[in-house]
Design brief:
694 residues, 31 helices
Length: 694
């Protein structure tokens, strides 16, 4: 007997012929689905239920109906599932050559669980750190961390989007959202009104709408007696703005909150409709969107908003679009424009408020162009504010609007194609994981995981993965940038913002890596390690300002101890003796201009030494001469360096490398490293290999 069920026995003499038929049927179903791979529900149901149901009928002559069903469906589904799983991990699978976790190769269930936690982008980043630039994150899907794959995958001749994730969003079987249209001609036709709607002339016309809402946002924040939740208020702001542009109004979330639940409904549609089509339920979002669209058509244009162009009210097209197309387009305006812009604003102010130096620099730039009395909502100075744009770029680098990228698929019949150095077989999907690409030291260095806007000032004009534009690039990005700049300029002109007392910034992003590479934290960390080693005389407290003051003025006072040049020099020598294992490039890379001056100075020093050396100098004399050079440099330093900009450099032989590192540091780190430069040959015996090994 196989088992007992309700007191009756299931016989073991199951006909082998029928079992063989079930096995062959299951294998055939797997082959058919793999061959044609359709998303038609009727075909899915037929492949899953018809073969075992037919075989169950053959068992009825020998078994009870329940036994026949259990045997037939159990055998069929077991063989079908086993066949699928074995194929997915077999060497015959098209993606077998690419590494990844076993569970991910078998099913996307694990990834679905991770996505539910909101940490999918971090999970995939960890997979890339473990497996490399290409990782198999699903049975038929890979994630790529390689900039060379961006244009082949997403460029003008790239692959189309994976449409299965938009099936649940479609409100009509005949009309798709613009981003879900795979046919190139149809996509180009539907995109024309969007291009007109986000042209520079059109954006100028939207300024009046945006200005009103930005002023409302800043006034609302200023009126709050308690600590406002910026994320919530930015969501309210963008939802109100996009409703003004899409439907001519109808949303007052900044005034009333989400009392009607429209914001929640729209967000639910954007995030869960790829699982189940909410539009098919009575009284769903589709009905709400339909009513708003009909009302907007009936009322006509009060202003040249986005809907004015989408509905062909400018008369450019030969005929107006269908109602279903307008419903899709209006909903897409809100879905694409509200959540993304609000998240960027939230991330931007988080970065500024946790990096006070950057906040103060941006405040200074805003005050320069928009002093009190100047209209901070006038866009005329935006192009002349490099640090503002650097802050926006750096925020988008650390927190991409779409961190997991946009999934693309190699179309069936294409035979597959090379995506950079990787071959993507047909009917498999791939995406560039922007979060990992943006935090890859090969692409952005130094301070890869830190907020450092200066990298965009140093590399101005360079084309990076965040700025590569494709034919299907987001047409609304200029509107989003306009909103970002307006909000930042007015908020920083009118408000003085601080983090709430007691709020832990680490709670915003739990990824500890983000905090471990902060430039100032690195300096403090290295000094803390050295402090216990090089002094027991209570000279560690305030060492940075004290040493800088000492080098600037020839004396310093630390914890009641007055230090002259000799004390400072002794302190510097003690520090130098402890620095053999410190990776200077991680503490503070140098400014290029300062690096050039350092090299010129060292070269001139060496030339002077060589001219006066006609004989072999004893080692102790050479050391004394070099120490005298150090003392001369201390006396000549004058007012010090002030702040310098950081810039990445390659590691070279010890003496030039330490000279470069010296100029790029601040405070005591700057002073001590500068002192080290001419005496490197005394205090270090590291070879080039030692320096490279860090």
């Amino acid at each position: 007997m196989l088992s007992e069920l309700d007191g009756s026995a299931i016989p073991t003499d199951i006909p082998c012929g029928i079992i063989l038929v079930l096995c062959l049927a299951a294998l055939s179903a797997h082959f058919v689905f793999k061959r044609y791979e359709t998303y038609n529900i009727a075909i899915h149901a037929g492949l899953l239920f018809l073969p075992p149901a037919g075989c169950a009928v053959l068992f009825l002559n020998q078994y009870r109906p329940i036994d026949a069903i259990l045997i037939s469906f159990g055998t069929y589904l077991s063989v079908l599932v086993s066949s699928i799983l074995m194929y997915r991990i077999s060497p015959f699978h098209p993606l077998a050559q690419y590494p990844g976790p076993l569970l991910n190769k078998l099913s996307k269930f694990r990834l679905a669980c991770v996505a539910g936690s909101g940490r999918q982008y971090l999970y995939i980043q960890k997979l890339h750190e473990r497996y490399g630039d290409i990782v198999r994150i699903g049975p038929n899907e890979v994630s790529i961390r390689d900039v060379s794959a961006i244009l082949p995958l997403m460029g003008t001749k790239g692959y189309r989007r994976v449409l299965v994730y938009w099936i649940g969003r479609n409100i009509s079987p005949n009309v798709n959202y613009l981003v879900a249209i795979s046919d190139q001609r149809e996509h180009a036709r539907r995109r024309k009104p969007w291009i007109r709607a986000f042209s520079p002339a059109a954006l100028k016309g939207y300024e009046e709408i945006t200005v009103k809402r930005v002023a409302q946002l800043v006034n609302a924040l200023a009126s709050k007696s308690d600590d406002p939740d910026l994320g919530k208020w930015f969501s309210y702001f963008t939802f109100d703005v996009m409703n003004d542009l899409a439907y001519g109004g109808g949303s007052e979330m900044m005034r009333d909150g989400d009392t009607g639940g429209s914001g929640t409904c729209t967000s639910l549609t954007a995030h869960s409709s790829s699982v189940i089509s909410l539009h098919k339920f009575p009284g769903s979002v589709k009905e709400m969107d339909k009513l708003r669209t009909i009302k907007r058509i009936r009322d006509g244009s009060l202003a040249h908003d986005v809907f004015y162009y989408l509905n062909n009210e400018d008369g450019v097209e030969s005929s107006p679009p269908s109602l279903d197309a307008l419903i899709c387009d209006g909903n897409l305006v809100i879905i694409a424009g509200a959540d993304t812009t609000s998240s960027v604003l939230t991330n931007l102010f988080f970065c500024l408020l946790t990096n006070r130096d950057a906040y103060d620099r941006l405040q200074s730039e805003v005050d320069t162009h928009y002093p009190p009395g100047e209209d901070a909502l006038d866009t005329k100075y935006h192009a002349d504010m490099p640090f503002l744009n650097a802050v926006i770029n750096e925020t988008l680098r650390l927190y991409p609007a779409t961190p997991d990228g946009s999934q693309r698929i190699a179309e069936k019949g294409s035979g597959g194609r090379m995506i950079g150095p990787y071959f993507l077989p047909e009917n498999t999907s791939a995406s560039v994981h922007f979060y990992s690409v943006h935090r890859d030291p090969r692409n952005f260095s130094p301070f890869t995981n830190s907020f450092w806007p200066d990298r965009w000032l140093i590399a101005a004009g360079e084309d990076t993965c965040a700025h590569q534009i494709t034919r299907k690039n987001c047409v609304g990005k200029n509107l989003a940038l306009q909103e970002l700049r307006m909000v930042v300029c007015l908020a920083m002109q009118k408000l003085d913002m601080r983090l709430s007392p007691g709020w832990d910034p680490k709670s915003y992003e739990e990824d500890e890596v983000f905090w471990n590479e902060d430039p100032k934290a690195l300096q403090d960390s290295e000094w803390a390690k050295l402090s216990s080693d090089f002094t027991n005389r209570r000279l560690t407290a305030g060492k940075e300002s004290a040493l800088q003051q000492g080098f600037d003025e020839g004396f310093a006072d630390v914890d009641g101890h007055e230090l002259g040049q000799e004390d400072l020099l002794r302190e510097a020598r003690d520090i130098v003796s402890q620095l053999s294992n410190v990776r200077f490039s991680d503490i503070a890379p140098p400014d290029l201009e300062a690096q050039r001056h350092a090299r010129e100075h060292l070269e001139s020093v060496m030339e002077d030494d060589n001219e006066g050396m006609d004989f072999e100098v004893p080692e102790e004399v050479a050391e004394k001469r070099k120490m005298e050079k150090l003392e001369d440099m201390i006396a000549q330093m004058g007012a010090g360096s002030g702040g310098v900009e950081r810039q990445q450099q390659d590691r070279v032989w010890p003496t030039p490398f330490l000279a470069q590192a010296a100029i790029g540091c601040k405070g005591a780190t700057y002073a001590v490293f500068l002192c080290m430069s001419p005496v490197t040959l005394i205090f270090t015996t590291a070879s080039a290999e030692d320096v490279h090994d860090g």
